[in-house]
Structures are given as structure tokens and as C-alpha cells.
Amino acid sequence: MKTFANKIKELRTRNELLLRQVAAAIEVDTSMVSKFENGERFPTREQIERLATFFKVPEEDFLVEAFSDKLTYDLSEEPLAIEILKKTIQKLKSKNNH
């Protein structure tokens, strides 16, 4: 399954862009974009929104991909990950109904 990091790199290379061009567009340094592409760092919500705008992709899709990767990373070693996510979904649904 393709990760958010892979998608950023793929979009950059497909558009024949340099790391520094993407970095300038989203107002970070070049090394940060490299870390995003290598999955070493996760962008903030604001950076994800800027990336979506820059690459002209749906912001919602980018946000869902990025945050799902972050959750996967954070819970990848946790044996109770599935139960934690189920409980989180319940809590979010309850919170959104109020």
C-alpha cells in the first residue's frame, strides 16, 4: 500500500520538481521535505493543506492519507491497536452527535 510519503515523492518527481521548489511552496526547508518523503517526519495539518494546494490534489484526500499514516505509525507496535481504534471511533461518533 502506498504511503503518504510515497505520494509526495511521486507527485514531486512526476512534476519534475526539485525538493527546494516544494519546500519554498510550503514554506519549510529542503531537508524537511526530504524527511516527509522518506517517512521520517509527518507534516503538520497546515503543511498538508499547503502540499495539497501546491500539487492541486483534493485537500481532504491528502489529510486522510497523512493522518491515517501517522496513526498507523503511532500504533504499529501496539498489540491493542485495533481495539484502541474501535474505541476512538465510538468516542468520535459520540462527540460529533453532541
Structural class: mainly alpha
Number of helices: 6
- According to CATH, the homologous superfamily is lambda repressor-like DNA-binding domains
Helix content: over 70%
Q: What value does the average pLDDT take?
A: 94
CATH class: Mainly Alpha
> What fraction of residues sit in β-strands?
under 5%
Tell me about the largest β-sheet. none
Low-confidence stretches are none
Order of helices and strands: HHHHHH
Describe it.
The N and C termini lie far apart (35 Å). With 98 residues, the protein is mainly alpha-helical. It has helices spanning 4-14, 19-26, 30-37, 45-55, 59-75, 81-97. Helix 2 crosses helix 3 (30-37).
List keywords for this structure.
98 residues, 434 Repressor (Amino-terminal Domain), elongated, 6 helices, mainly alpha, 0% strand
What's this model, at a glance?
The chain is mainly alpha-helical and 98 residues long. It has 6 helices and no strands. The chain has one domain (4-97): lambda repressor-like DNA-binding domains (434 Repressor (Amino-terminal Domain), Orthogonal Bundle).
Task: Write the topology of this structure.
Blueprint: H1 4-14, H2 19-26, H3 30-37, H4 45-55, H5 59-75, H6 81-97
Helix pairs in contact: 2-3, 4-5
